[in-house]
Amino acid sequence: MDAFYSHYPFLDGAKSLVGSLEGAYTQDEIMDKAQERLKMAVVEGEVRLMGAQLARMLELDLLSYAASRMVVAASKNKALCARVASAEAKRALHYLQHEDEGRLLFIAHEIGLGLQKGENGNFSLAFFDYLRFKPKEEGFKLSAKPIAGGVVAISRADADRFVQEAARMKMDVLLPVQDVKFTPEILAIAKEMAGLLPKTLMQVGNIAQGDFPPCICRIIEDMRNGEHIGHQARWALGVYLVRSGMKMEDILAIYASSPQYNEGTTKYQLEYLRQKEYSMPSCATMDAYGIAQQDCPCLVGGERRGTPITNSRRRTSISYEKSKTEKTDGAAAEKE
Amino acid sequence: MAREQDYLSKCFSQYYAKWQPPISSVESREFGFGNWQTKIAFRHLSFPNASALCARLLRDAPPYVSYSAAYYEFPDARPMPSKNWKGADLIFDLDAPMHSCGKFTCQQCFDAIKNETIKLIEDFLVPDFGLSKKEMIVNFSGSRGYHVHVRSESVRGLRREERKEIIEYINASSVSVKALLHDDSAFISHEGRRVKVPKFYGPLSTDGGWRGKVARRFVQLLKEKRLQELGIGRKKAQELYERQAEAERTLCTRVKRMDGSACADWTKLGLEKGYGKMFEALVENTKVAISTDTDSNVTFDTSKLLRLPDSIHGGSGFAARLANDAGHTLFGAATPALEKFEPHVHAPVFSDEALKVKIVEPVPSLPLRDGGMSQAHAKEEILEVPQYLGIYLMCKGAALLA
Ligand SMILES: [Zn+2]
Prior knowledge:
- The complex is a heterodimer.
- Chain A has helices at 4-7, 12-20, 27-44, 55-75, 78-96, 101-110, 127-133, 156-171, 184-196, 214-224, 231-243, 248-255, 263-276, 283-289, 319-323, 330-333, and strands at 115-117, 123-126, 147-148, 151-154, 299-300, 303-304.
- Chain A is mainly alpha-helical.
- The longest helix of chain A has 21 residues, at 55-75.
- Chain B has helices spanning 2-17, 50-60, 107-125, 153-156, 160-170, 177-180, 209-223, 234-242, 244-251, 275-286, 343-346, 387-395; strands at residues 31-34, 42-45, 64-68, 70-72, 85-88, 90-95, 136-140, 145-150, 182-183, 186-190, 193-197, 200-202, 255-256, 262-265, 305-307, 329-330, 333-334, 354-359, 381-386, 399-401.
- Zinc ion is lined by residues 99, 101, 105-106, 108-109 of chain B.
């Protein structure tokens, strides 16, 4: 077997190859490899490259990718899927950088990226492909790029990044698996892998649930117990969860514990909060609403400082802080 | 106002009696109707086809009709997520900024916003994004601006962030002068003194994207003798006008900076200093002033509704008429090209028959459909005006039926 599809196992051509290898290896061999591969992706955020290029290893490598996709699908865990997709795409980049132009273009087209050869060893992308597959880094901002006639000229290095990004997006899709029966082994690995996700990625986006400040915990608890949540508490909780950078489905999972939960309405309200970009009310405002708690770290010398977000115990480099400095005045909070 | 509202509704209904909506996929759009109090009083409406929509407009004659740029599987479902978004046209909403003319939008405001719209299309959508004019419709908003709707397949799937980035490119909010102009000035020793030698490298007029855009804008302003718009003094500007060809050549001649990148040597224009300020003015002059305001943005918030083209705007009685020359007609009258579109001439759709009205607040002299100007009215009076003008004044709340 040629190393090509082992390097780019997300290509459609790899699928038929996997089919042809059926029965050549034991399920244990494949699952061991898959587990190893997933662990690297989940824990280190990167899948290591292979050293040797023996046919047997290449084949097992390809099969382990296919098996790892099964595990991810079985987990139904979006965070796991995203983490694995990003790690696999990073691995692909290492190989992409050494491909000749023809192969790079082939791979790009296989995954729906309309990459074209440009002038002087450069490349070009159709404008809307550029937008769709644009990596997040500042340097890819449209305004810094030579756009003309619906085409954006890019360097070879940028072209590699775009292929990486298109591959990541292709893999970052949870396959619908309602009707699929997974073996207990696959389900067990799926569970284990989800458990290995770095704390900040697990069930919540950026702030882990255990790190919620007491006022927020109290609101969630009341909600779970089916108690009536006041209008302001409901709103504050929504703003907190949205601004803390959690994914919508994780937030919904919290609301789902309420006996009165209605997914459509909750989603709608949360989307509304997100779009309006409300600021988190300050802890002083929370106090005025009567929803601050006595055992909160925001209490300093009889005064409440900061916001429930700044007073969350664990904070990672959270996007809300980069994108917008948190306002702590109560005025913004009353915009409701 | 009840009598006036009844009258206006009757007129609007007559208008819709022989009307066709100039939009595609009516069945996949959400519609919203306004009443005399709010512009969107009812939304989540849907119609199986254009004739069902027309029948409803004929019956209800709402003062405002809006539709979604988005296509939905279930346009009347609520809340929003259950509509199942299928994609959306790419919309640009250009509105004349506040001006002393207030609610009686003046010619100057109309001209300025029309030029901004032309700039959006001619300087950005077509040359940069590669869109063809066949893929877009442009309509007068009925009030103080224009809407551009790009309807091609290529834009439908764009997500919020991507739409936002397009706006940030067009309104230059993501453009930094630092990335356009490089100050490579250096000090050298000259007869025992340290002397500053200015060196400013900037974009070539042949560059793509924003770089070439500002360089070409400079050349255009130079040719049109408008350099004072960039804060360049009269004397210096005159000097540049006299050696225009040379300046033009400078901006398309490649020189290499220390880092090997190809630039034009802007120092040769001899502006002494103030290149930074001049470039800031140049970016301002090149961009299209389109807002990124999150609350009202129809470009990236595709759940927002916008005026249905060719429908009546109840705040003016004007039709939100299509304003591009794609062979479209309204009741047999050809749509003028955007360049020729004059709201006061093309947007009034009611008759010239005399209508007796009572002026109830000061009204300035207004451009008439036939090219003339109306009388200004400082105090209450009863007079006869053409029906279309009477309707305009009533919609503005400045007149009553007499
Ligand atoms: Zn004005």
